[in-house]
Design a protein that fits this description.
CATH class: Alpha Beta
InterPro entries: ADC_synthase, Chorismate_C
Oligomer: single chain
Strand content: 35-45%
Organism: Winogradskyella eximia
CATH superfamily: Anthranilate synthase
Pfam families: Chorismate_bind (PF00425)
Number of strands: 19
Protein name: Isochorismate synthase
Bound molecules: ligand ISC
Distance between the termini: 28 Å
Order of helices and strands: HEEEEEEHEHEEEEHEEEHEHEEEEH
Length: 371
């Protein structure tokens, strides 16, 4: 399929007001798309179906599913898309937003110092009016700009339109192999400068690693935790640890989701206290920001080589079930002709409210660059 007919089909789906998702996973040149045939709002609670899932921050609200059997699927393989680059404009942050965020962060720090809370991720919403509100055009710019991210554009007429470029894998399961990452700590990327991580950033990322490792232990036979690396996500740097494990035969996908989501990278620690604080004190409803999205229980054909001599038929096909979910970060919701961009950061006892504000300003740039 050519890239133009691939995108024409998506444009047509959008014009018909029907649900779709178009996305590309990190470090590959495949763009995939699912077009749902009707405008039904299918949901999942059990995560046993097959399809594409879009889950909110608060899992007490249900997750939306594009069921495989009601969708047409297509993909293309391409390195870059033909789309004009936009002039970068200066985005001057709003003074009121700044005061409000600093107040929220200060409240978080006070709570950490006086209660059991160790870390809480606090966020805000930045609103910007759009010159060109065609989501497919924005998606194309994201695909060209952020190769290390899961870039996506998701639409359902009964829910809304979300676009993002997330650097964070929640987890993926391929057969029995479970891979996840701990991503936290942020600094601005500066060409030719070596990064120095502070104790605050090292600790906030370690909280995530410890949480993930502890939570997946009951479901796994073996866990391998890598050293901490610095990784780039657009104009930012983060600390990242890879955690690879083998799950037990009886482990259910839903139990792994409940154990991991939301991780302290987007919620805090302890989870319940942090979530309560967020739901009570943040000045808006996160909806799908810091939720997760991705492929659910898809069958994947792989060929395996036995590598034994004297075996005539030494390659055999293995069908594995795979799911991969990304945390919905560096994302925005398009409503009428405005973009609502969501940005947050991890707060610990050592946080500086002014710096936390600047971090959210830098994070907002990921989306502001493409609209
Ligand atoms: C909550 C966000 O980022 C998370 C992921 C990486 C680094 C983070 C941080 O340094 O605070 C956050 O934990 C966001 O981008 O809105």
């Amino acid at each position: 399929m050519s890239s133009s007919s691939f995108f024409e089909a998506i444009e047509q789906q959008y014009a018909l007001n029907l649900p779709f998702v178009v996305y590309s996973r990190p470090i590959n040149s495949v763009i995939k798309c699912w077009l749902q045939q009707d405008d039904e709002l299918y949901k999942t609670e059990t995560f046993t179906e097959s399809g594409f899932v879009f889950a909110p921050f608060n899992l007490e609200e249900k997750s939306i599913l594009f069921p495989k059997e009601f969708c047409s699927y297509s993909e293309i393989n391409i390195d870059a898309l033909d789309i004009e680059i936009i002039e970068s404009t200066q985005n001057i942050p709003n003074e009121n937003d700044k005061l409000q965020h600093i107040e929220l962060v200060s409240k978080g720090i006070d709570n950490i110092k006086t209660k059991d809370l160790k870390k809480v991720v606090l966020s805000r919403c930045v609103t910007k009016s759009l010159q060109n509100s065609n989501p497919i055009t924005i998606f194309k710019r994201l695909f060209n700009a952020y190769k290390n991210a899961m870039v996506y554009c998701w639409f359902h007429p009964k829910v809304g339109l979300w676009i993002g470029a997330t650097p964070e894998l929640l987890f993926k399961v391929e057969g029995k192999r479970l891979t996840t990452i701990s991503l936290a700590g942020t600094q601005a990327f500066k060409e030719n400068e070596t990064v120095n991580w502070t104790t605050k950033e090292v600790e906030e990322q370690q909280i995530v690693t410890d949480y993930i490792t502890k939570e997946i232990t009951p479901f796994t036979k073996m866990i391998n935790v890598s050293d901490v690396d610095t990784v780039r996500a657009g104009n930012l740097l983060h600390l990242k640890t890879r955690i690879i494990s083998v799950i037990k035969d009886k482990a259910k996908l839903k139990s792994i989701i409940d154990a991991l989501h939301p991780t302290p990278a987007v919620c805090g620690f302890p989870k319940v206290d942090a979530k309560d604080f967020i739901l009570q004190h943040e000045n808006y409803n996160r909806e799908f920001y810091t939720g997760f999205l991705g492929e659910l229980n898809l069958k994947q054909n792989t060929t395996r080589n036995t590598n034994r001599r004297n075996v005539e038929n030494n390659a055999y096909a293995v069908v594995k079930t795979q799911s991969n979910f990304y945390v919905n970060l560096r994302c925005m919701q398009l409503k009428a002709s405005s973009a609502h961009i969501y940005v947050g950061g991890g707060i610990t006892k050592d946080s500086n409210p002014e710096k936390e504000w600047e971090e959210t300003v830098n994070k907002a740039e990921t989306m502001l660059k493409v609209i």
